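Support case: user asked for a sample of complex input and structure output to validate their parser. Sending the pair below.
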Amino acid sequence: MRKDSFIYRFFNLYYEGFKNMTLGRTLWAIIIIKLFVIFVILKVFFFPNFLKEHAKGNESAYVAGEFIERAEQ
Amino acid sequence: MTNLLLIDAGTIEWSRAQFALTAIYHWLFVPLTLGLAVIMGIMETCYYRTKNNFWKDTAKFWQKLFGINFAMGIATGIILEFEFGTNWSNYSWFVGDIFGAPLAVEGIVAFFMESTFVAVMFFGWNKVSRGFHLASTWLTGLGATISAWWILVANAWMQHPVGCEFNPDTMRHEMVSFADVALSPFAVSKFCHTVTSAWIIGAVFCVGVCCWYLMKKRETKMALESLKIGAIVGLVATLLAAATGHKAGQDVAQVQPMKLAAMEALYNGGTDVGLTAIAWVNPFSQPDYENEESAPLRIDMPYALSFMATNDFHGYVPGINDLLNGYTKPDGTREPSVDEKIERGKKAIAALADYRKARQEGLPVDSLRAELATINENMKYFGYGYIKDKAQVVPYIPINFWAFRIMVGVGCLLILFFAIVLAGVYKWPAKLWQKNDISALPNWHYWIAIALIPLAYIASESGWLVAEFGRQPWTIQDMLPTWVAVSDLHSSSVIITFFLFLILFTTMLAVEISILLKQIKKGPDYSS
């Protein structure tokens, strides 16, 4: 691939950028750990889709039931 | 009424507390990103215009601090979306069609724009042209600002729902006008006020860091030049925030008058109303607004609240009791009392129940026109159908009152502060600054500037406290109270995640502050 081509320069920007990072390595490590905690631990184990679990495909009926019942309480 | 210090261990209160905690921590990262984006953009523009490497090094230094904050803030907002799906599932279903749209646009357009140009900004020095690099730096900031726009559109819609229609078959509010939602005047003024307040945070941070260098007698040239830019941005931003705050206040007066009354501890309204400068409102208990004429020891600025709310020094501003009992507006129309609104809300809910039952029994929509008409006529007050006691619609006054005063008080202090810093760096008036070089002042001057960094954050967060506590009990103004929006969860699961977030966010904040301090101590890397 020619070194003055757009694709090479585009790739090289990121390649050299990541390779020469100093403080950036620490920041990326923190970002990756954080994303892991947020998406793999918190989302999977602590933040289920409540309606998906409880409404069993009939969300509108479930929510209507909640809205009407709570008015009567 | 919920007491701030005795948060009920129930699902509603813990879900609210968790949302507040997440939003407050998220807002520690966002304003610095938006503010530093402007400051580093100006510095790189100086480099572009002068070709002087000093400006390149200065811009790179501030970009490094921006990068640290940016990295720490990434994805902290996504947790709010998790909470919508788990803790606030009724809310999410009820308005997800509308609320989801701006969030989706934010995710797709602004986030990718930000992340693309931030890479060029950090990796592109000496690899792309100076002009392209400068454009990337500004576009990084613009991307972050567009992100803020869409988030604030979503928030503004909760405060003032527009451009939607309720569908009782799907139990969802459906968007009828994207333009009405995206360009709602409430959203526009909220955006302008929020973004300008974020620029203030960037400016205070910049000035504070510069003052630390001046105190340590290090990087004097960089500190002085950055101080100029920080103080100019700060002064412009504080003045703009004051102007946009005035507009935002007028919007609140129009669409959330109860919030304004709570902010002002205005129990009984009228014309020619003064803005409360100071009064005694007990921070730990709801005042007896029904029986007190006004808050004790009240000193006000005559006519100022009428002007702030209506642009007329003699304008009418309703108080809490007027809003509870109903009142006649200056144009002759009558604002219904809360009791009347409760009746209308109950009608809407009863009609909804009848409609749903009839539809389950197989009746066609055409035969249910009466129920549909009742729902549509009263949808505006749907949420009032869940109100058992009219005191429930009065937000917790002490938080609103004091948070508003902290925000405005610190804002005024910052106008003065930036004006003094600017006068100091430009030595105006010359006579005053003859013997006082701003780079060689006694240390306590610099400590004041450093102390203003946390103070500015407190003011910024206070603005959000006013915005969000002020609309209680509503998740969606007048349509959905918190206790209907919340999922039928056990509170223990919310409590666990509350403390998990507390640990996660506090750790991240500690790491950010530690890395920031380390890099500030290290200082800029000067090119040879």
